[in-house]
Amino acid sequence: MTAAMGLYQRLDGLPLPWHPTTKPTPLIIYGAATAVGAYAIKLAQLSNIHPLICIAGRGISFVESLIDKSKGDVILDYREGDDKLVQNLKSAVDKAGGKAEYAFDAVGEHGSYRNICKVLDPQTGQITLVLPIKDSSAIPSTIKQSLTMVGAVHVGMDQNQFQKETGSKTGNTDFGFVMFRFFGRGLQEGWFQGHPHEVVPGGLAGISGALKNLKDGKASAVKYVFRLEETEGVDRYKTN
pLDDT tens for residues 4-19? Predict the structure, then answer.
């Protein structure tokens, strides 16, 4: 849902999956191997948004399975350093038609948005991030920026731009209502899949090791799952 919020409620102008575009629409996705980034790719594919300019690291092989190179999609490796990445981004944008107006930053750290903004169109560019930025000056004032938070679809505390401009009574919560059902149908019919996951042995006792893997950067393109019933001693808390 975070990916859907970013693509369709924060970035203004991207087509919904049931009304896919028929024209080239370059989209930069930074953190393409993360769960949010991967879902952004999957949704973009349903909306026929291409070429996708994806940035990833150790999860590149996973991202390869999601993109469509026949439509110009590419993957760039951020581990080559910022200068090389920006150079490759510029080259990818040139091959995509010379103009990039949309970017989804699913990382929001380590200079990600700075690198993106060096290639986004300075007048019509838009970027949405999953984390608040620490230095607002890093994004030019002419580039439209937004923060994507999935909570907006649950509590109705955040009017989207369309509500503000039109006074409409429908908004993010209604968007969430529709998209959750859309995802359910896709999972049921098989044209939409979940993110790769790994069951950590030991139930809650495995959390410490999993957190360490996350901190050390050892977890890529995977979600950790913990089965409570595997936790040692959990039986004593069962009720009839």
Answer: 999 999 999 999 999 9
